[in-house]
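Ticket #4471: structure export looks truncated?
Reporter: QA, pipeline team
Priority: medium

Steps to reproduce: submit the single chain below to the structure queue and open the exported record.
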Amino acid sequence: MTVRRKKKFSVGSVLCFFLLCVLAVIMLYPLFTIVNISLKTYTDYLKDPLGPVMSPTLDNFETVWDSMNVLPTTLNTLLLTFITCALNAAICMLAAFPIGRNYFRGTNKLYTFILASMFFPTSLVATISLVQSLGIYGTSAGLVAVWTAGSLQ
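Actual output as written to the record:
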């Protein structure tokens, strides 16, 4: 028969747990506020914007669904995201294989350059001007190109 020992908590672990709980509350409060406000009627919101919802309603979601054309927009976003992820996976696999296997001279320098370039943000002005000069500004192809190039950085 094994005897279980009680786990002793140190002051540091208790303080760390308390700090993590405080950070969790700080990060979850905006989400709670958004959900709380979305379940209120307009008059309830005007009476008490941050107070808890007393009579929840889903009328706001119905209004958004009817007036904002949510379904086609969501399906379009999912399609563009799938295309971008597929392109990223294909390009990264094609680039990673020869770099990982050291198939050519300068592989370590190229890998270091790729890692170093991740620290620098892309210029939004240069990206927009490039997409405009290519003639794909405002199109799905332009969006996929920017998303793909941005995630390869």
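Status: closed, not a bug. The export was complete when the record was re-opened. Leaving a note from the reviewer for reference: The mean pLDDT is 89.
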